[in-house]
Amino acid sequence: MFKRKNILVAVAVSMFLAACGGGSDDGAAPAAAGAQATGGNNTQVLDTTTLRGFLRLTANQLQFSDTVITNEQLQTLTAGVGPFATGAAAPLTKFGFRISGVGMDGAANQSATGRMAIELAERAGSAGIAAGQQAEQFQVMIDKVTLTANAAGAFSVADATGAKAYVRYQPATGTAVNFTVDNAAGLLSLAPVIGETTSSMLTFDLEPAMSRDIAAATGTTKTTLQTAKDISGLFDMKATISNVAIRANDETTVLTGQSVTVAGSNQAAVTGAGVAGAVKVNIE
Question: What's the pLDDT score for residue 153?
């Protein structure tokens, strides 16, 4: 048995001015990584700086919504990890890397403007795909966040001026929609880990990202984005952050680089340190 998805009528992607709700739809093809991306309402020159040193993935732990698992579980459980708690607007409320800046000790006084992206792409043959339906896909990206190691080598993240959040959702039935919201403040942050002070959770808050996009969108784009929280099936998941290296808890193994391109966003692929694996969403 599987959970049948909402049936959606086909929708047409429209372009909205940022002044009419703080966001925009985008339809141009992405530029090559490291290039200036132009078109629609977006122009971006990427920061190619990579911070010296590295972040450690402490205990090899990752956070999905309010659940902490290990990267080994994500990589090896072919039946998929999860399901995890969904939000009022997003299929996952948050995703995080448990990191320590121990590898930054000798690399103080530096900063870079990074990006982070997450992709959930439904696997062909998933039990969530009913007759007449297509594989769902959910992608979200923040295009600017300031990554810093201070004079003591302490790592921090901060909002970058003009940062935007890009979302694309391909529903089970109907046309994919893209939306860009101009307010990405606070979406990427360092959250404390309960019970210890040597590491933090580098967290991408997906719930406010989706809430802001839905609030700013209109028409069929809005109604389609509102159904993204209901995606169901077995999904191939990727998460990546650019401009900084992440190593496993052994401080030697480099996390396999991932690449996520938010299709139709007119933004270059986000490449860098990341993780990948199978995730169950809204199915047991």
Answer: 85
Q: What is the DSSP string of 89-123?
A: S-SSSEEEEEEEGGGGTT--SEEEEEEEEEEEEEP
Q: Write down the pTM of the prediction.
A: 0.83
Nearest CA to 137 out of 258, 262, 265, 10 is that of 262
Chain segment 161-179, per-residue pLDDT in tens: 999 999 999 999 999 999 9
Alpha helices in the chain (DSSP H): 71-76, 206-216, 219-225
How far apart (Å, rounded) are the C-alpha atoms in residues 216 and 16?
10
Kind of pairing between the strands at 188-192 and 177-181:
unpaired
Contact call for residues 268 and 35 (beta carbons, < 8 A): yes
For residue 36, pLDDT beyond 60? no
The Cα 156–Cα 23 span in angstroms is: 28
Contacts of 230 (CB under 8 A, 6+ apart): 5, 6, 86, 91, 282
Confidence class for position 126, pLDDT limits 50, 70, 90: confident
Pair of tokens at residue 104? 């930054």
Q: Please report, for residues 75, 82, 236, the alpha-carbon distance to residue 15 in angstroms, rounded to integers and kept in the order given.
A: 38, 36, 29
- Say yes or no to pLDDT of 205 above 80: yes
Q: Which two tokens stand for residue 246?
A: 């992440």
Q: Which of 186, 204, 182 is nearest to 138 (CA)?
A: 204
